[in-house]
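Illustration: DNA-directed RNA polymerases I, II, and III subunit RPABC3.
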Amino acid sequence: MATRVTLFEDIFVVKQLNPDGKKFSRINRIQATGTTFQCDLLLDTNSEIYPIAEEEKITIVLSSTLSLDGRPDDGEYDQSGEPTMADNYEYVMHGRVFDIKYKGDGVIAVHVSFGGLLMRLTGDQRHLENVRADERLYILIKKD
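Result:
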């Protein structure tokens, strides 16, 4: 079976910060829409480490590994100093897909927890079909 590295990629426009009000002092929940696949994104980020503003464009990549050659992660932090996908991004988190809900009409919602910071990515299942339930993945973010 071939290794799937990039599971999803799109540029998102941040529409709103904290749509349900600010709950935690160092966390922002961003609400954004993808420019290519029109997916809806809700994502919690650490606003002290990586501030994001409304109307900013950000590239989001979901990946099964950070290895440039597609080698699967072995579950341990790589301290080798070798280049990784993370080198090309500004903010990276590791998490697990904990739920995929089928909304009907070919639309699914993928739910991921990054150590308690949550993401919900909703869109056409054709664009999200590479993401699997209970899969460990990385989210890589950079501003455009």
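Reading the tokens back as a structure: DSSP finds one helix and eight strands in the chain.
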